[in-house]
Write a structure and sequence with these properties.
The complex is a heterodimer. By secondary structure, chain A is of the alpha/beta class. Chain A folds into 2 domains: 23-72 and 435-492, Roll (Urease, subunit C, domain 1), CATH 2.30.40.10; 75-427, Metal-dependent hydrolases (TIM Barrel), CATH 3.20.20.140. Helices cover 28% and strands 19% of the residues of chain A. Chain A has helices spanning 94-103, 122-135, 159-165, 180-193, 216-221, 228-246, 262-273, 284-288, 292-295, 338-350, 365-368, 385-394, 400-407, 409-416, 488-492; strands at 23-33, 38-47, 50-56, 70-74, 76-81, 106-111, 140-143, 197-200, 212-213, 225-226, 254-257, 278-282, 355-356, 440-450, 469-479, 482-486. In chain A, the strands form 4 sheets. A 7-stranded mixed sheet of chain A has the order 3-2-1-4-14-15-16. In chain A, α2 links the parallel β6 (106-111) and β7 (140-143). In chain A, α1 (94-103) crosses α2 (122-135), α4 crosses α6 (228-246) and α6 (228-246) packs parallel to α7. Chain A is globular. Chain B is an alpha/beta fold. Helices cover 40% and strands 13% of the residues of chain B. Chain B has 15 helices and 9 strands. In chain B, the strands form 2 sheets. A 5-stranded parallel sheet of chain B has the order 7-6-5-8-9. In chain B, α2 crosses α14. Chain B starts with a helix and ends in a 6-residue tail after the last helix. Classes of the chains: A alpha/beta, B alpha/beta.
Chain lengths: 495, 342
């Protein structure tokens, strides 16, 4: 299989990133199309960047094609990533982040505004767009504006100008919207503009100095605890303020990002049931990892869950196989216990969580090869998200179609829910639609890949999976009809 | 408790095979026993008119203390010198650390300068594991954050065995009272004392016990091989009643600024180890404190110097236990004996 340029002989070598895909055919693969809700054996043909045909195979033609092999899905959409430009280009740039995104199967990313300077006026947004254009990558780059000027939590950013310049919402991510009062203003003003406010829900007073999720593991390891109440309190505040704001501005919308606890997800579940315009997302690491990894355990969250939903004891299980205090596991919100991870999964399956986001947070060695309590928060996760979700699928915990939807139609739906962004391409159906520019990922579930500093395209090597294998090798990512990523082995495959 | 009993009947070990000592959690009971027996030998040396043996002659011990400490650093350096080791003392206030040098760079530099055993103290939990990843020699933890202080726990155990009839902790009630939340001494003692089979009680104001109950609940089944359950309570009377050993922990003034304590006066009124409260303990119970003490706060001055106090024994035993650990880590023990079966 090979993606060839217009006029090139198939299999003659790899195509340049960013070039329009002249001809790309895939026979007898497993297609997953969240837009139509359909999945099954099929074939696709891309010609001159357009998804020319999608054929669903039936009967004898479909024989032997399973969802355990090569899978074709719409390109993934990450609602929450940090590409660090401008300001922290040692950790990541728009170019390296886009390459990493495509390696992870993502064709669209939404970047958080905690750059330096923050995206609090259109000028910074322009710099990011220029960097995206100069990167040559076809990965679509969307940007959140800051809620507050300088993300300082005092005054509103240039929200109207940012809306005119095309931000998809507002967030002070990295930190919560500082006060309830400011959040109320932001929800009203953003609602007026037809955009959502995305909050990192954390009560900073309760979490001051925190190093790990409060609980058994943190207690044993002498790490300052980040209590569940820190998230519950913040989500409660946000929902209360949303209700208040809706009284004045019915277009106010709230998105809660990287929700990590069972208790906070329950609040969101009830809020949604009562009809509040709130959406939320969870991350791969909160679905699949737990705080016991900090102690040195390396088993999946669902393997760490004991009877009656009580987390198992990694010390009693002699499950501690790695060196403790690995700083690639320091992340905010922190890794929780196996019961909270199970709650994140339940929320994803029942729709309480609309999307899975990577919270891709690359950092330099300087910021990570330090004492645990001094290490920067964040996991470089945009390349490993698919593998983590496929581990859940392999374990029988998550249907493949739901995993794909969480990375495609789910995030698109969040963006589509706001009036100003409802019409943009990213809010589109994200399906395998004939006649549209090809925007898709091809990955092989029968293959695995080794996560190493060399195999990661992100500058941030701060992944807890370094040295481990993940299922599902991405073979090709095509964004807006252009080649975004091609596996080196697949590129050389003459078949 | 069967696991504890079986751990204590394991056959004695005569060889040490841990490259580093960062916490007692990975040290088996027979290995702890080896440390105790080695400390006995070291104590014999300390009783001689000339307290110096050539065991670590020419070996290089470096102390790297990121946190102010007089007694622990001096105890380690005395122990090293008693074994004839060359001692280099690095104080971050006068080193490149104040210029922003990272721990990793500092450790690499000290190794290049010849350090073989690195004794370190650090304010961040887990820091010695990072040092151990990049250091070619041996790391001996002199206390990290709230996490661990293994040499203190081992000298505490040594002192308890020395002062209890039969030298056996099994079934003996040990109460540790004070700021458990922020205490690396308490955490390391949880591992060693539950391994020893003691009836361990942790006591303090609820604000300074936070999180510890989750640990106690997790161990309530006695699930961890070699370790038993322990108790967590704010009821000082329940903790002290019929105790064989009572250990006070330092209460720091910062805890009031942090909103965790109303006042030192109120702490003293409710939790101070004084003669009246200690009358609840068993006759002959011993009183311990890792120091430095706030006399009049967590411990009454008369108690600190009373006949039941073994606080100065702890200091003296600290040198013997640290000599034992330096000796074992340096591999001197293996050289002096034929290799024991693992």
């Amino acid at each position: 299989m090979s993606a060839g340029t217009d006029g090139a002989t198939p299999g003659s070598g790899s195509l340049k990133i960013g070039a329009t895909v002249g001809r790309f055919e895939l026979e007898r693969a497993w297609l997953v199309d969240p837009a139509s809700g359909r999945e099954g054996p099929g074939e696709i043909v891309v010609t001159d960047g357009i998804l020319e045909s999608v054929v669903w195979l039936e009967g004898a033609e479909a024989a032997g094609v399973t969802d355990k092999g090569v899978v074709v899905a719409p390109g993934f959409f990450d609602l929450h990533a940090h590409f660090r430009e401008p300001g922290f280009e040692d950790a990541e740039t728009v170019a390296t982040g886009s390459a990493a995104a495509a390696h992870g199967g993502f064709t669209t990313v939404a970047l958080m505004p905690n750059t330096a300077p923050a995206v609090d006026d259109p000028g910074v947004l322009g710099r990011i767009r220029s960097a995206a254009a100069a990167s040559g990558s076809p990965v679509g780059v969307l940007v959140y504006g800051a809620v507050s000027a300088g993300r300082a939590g005092d005054q509103l950013s240039a929200m109207g100008e940012l809306a005119d310049a095309g931000v998809i919402g507002y967030s002070d991510d990295g930190a919560p919207v500082k006060t309830a009062k400011l959040l109320r203003s932001a929800l009203l003003y953003a609602g007026m503009l037809g955009l959502p406010v995305a909050d990192h829900a954390e009560d900073s007073e309760l979490t001051a100095g925190a190093e790990a999720s409060e609980g058994y593991v943190a207690s044993v390891m002498g790490l300052a605890g980040w209590p569940v109440a820190g998230e519950v309190q913040a989500v409660s505040r946000d929902l209360a303020v949303l209700v208040d704001a809706l009284g004045d501005e019915p277009r106010a919308r709230l998105h809660l990002t990287h929700v990590s606890t069972a208790a906070a997800l329950d609040l969101v579940r009830r809020a949604k049931a009562s009809g509040l315009p709130v959406t939320c997302d969870v991350t791969p690491h909160h679905l699949a990892l737990t705080d016991e990894w900090i102690a040195g355990a390396r088993r999946w969250a669902w393997e760490a869950l004991g009877a009656a939903g009580v987390p198992r004891d990694p010390w009693a299980d002699a499950a501690l196989t790695a060196s403790p205090y690995n700083t690639s596991l320091r992340v905010n919100p922190p890794l929780r216990n196996a019961a909270d991870a199970a709650a994140c999964l339940a929320a994803l399956i029942d729709g309480t969580a609309d999307a899975v986001v990577t919270d891709h947070a690359p950092h330099t060695v300087v910021d990570k090869e330090v004492e645990f309590g001094k290490a920067a928060n964040g996991i470089s996760g945009i390349e490993t998200a698919l593998g983590v979700l496929l581990a859940l699928v392999d374990a029988g915990k998550l249907p493949l179609a739901r995993a794909v939807a969480a990375l495609t139609s789910g995030p698109a739906g969040v963006v589509a829910a706001s009036s100003r962004t409802a019409g943009i391409a990213a809010a589109g159906p994200r399906g395998l639609t004939e006649g549209a520019p090809a925007d898709l990922v091809v990955f092989d579930r029968s293959d695995r890949w080794q996560v190493t500093p060399e195999s990661m395209l992100s500058k941030g090597k701060n992944s807890p999976f370094v040295g481990r294998e993940l299922p599902g090798r991405v073979l090709v990512t095509i964004a807006a009809g252009r080649l975004a990523y091609e596996d080196p082995l697949a590129a050389g495959d003459e078949s | 408790m069967t696991t504890v009993a079986s751990a204590q009947t394991d056959k004695p070990v005569t060889a040490w095979h841990h490259r580093h000592l960062i916490d007692v959690d990975v040290v088996s009971w027979p290995e702890i026993d080896l440390i105790m027996r080695t400390a006995d030998e070291m104590k014999g040396i300390l009783a001689r008119p000339i307290r110096k043996v050539p065991a670590l002659n020419g070996r290089r011990v470096t102390t790297l203390f990121y946190e102010a400490s007089t007694r622990t650093r001096v105890s380690f350096e005395t122990a090293a010198r008693n074994l004839s080791a060359d001692v280099v003392s690095v104080a971050p206030a006068t080193s490149s650390v104040t210029k922003g040098e990272s721990l990793v760079d500092t450790v690499r530099t000290l190794e290049a300068l010849g350090a073989e055993i690195l004794v370190m103290r650090h304010s961040v939990s887990g820091a010695p594991y990072l040092a151990a990843e990049v250091f070619g020699g041996h790391v001996l933890n002199g206390g990290d954050g709230w996490h661990a202080h293994p040499t203190q726990a081992l000298l505490d155990l040594y002192t308890m065995r020395e002062n209890l009839p039969g030298g056996d902790l099994r079934g003996r009630k040990v109460a540790i009272v004070g700021d458990i939340l922020h205490s690396r001494v308490a955490r390391s003692n949880i591992w060693s004392l539950t391994a020893a089979g003691a009836d361990l009680w942790l006591c303090g104001p609820a604000t300074l016990l936070r999180g510890m109950d989750r640990w106690a609940v997790a161990w309530s089944g006695g699930a961890i091989p070699g370790h038993g359950r322990f108790n967590v309570t704010s009821d000082i009377d329940a903790a002290l009643r019929d105790a064989d050993v009572v250990m006070g922990l330092r209460i720091q003034r910062e805890r009031m600024q942090g909103g965790l304590l109303p006042s030192l006066r109120e702490y003293a009124a409710r939790f101070q180890l004084n003669a009246k409260r200690l009358s609840l303990a068993k006759p002959g119970a011993i009183v311990m404190h890792p120091g430095p003490m706030n006399e009049g706060v967590e411990i009454a001055p008369d108690v600190a110097i009373s006949g039941c106090s073994v606080i100065t024994d702890q200091v003296a035993n600290g040198v013997a236990v640290r000599m034992a650990l330096l000796y074992l880590l340096a591999g001197a023990h293996e050289a002096a004996h034929t290799e024991a079966a693992r």
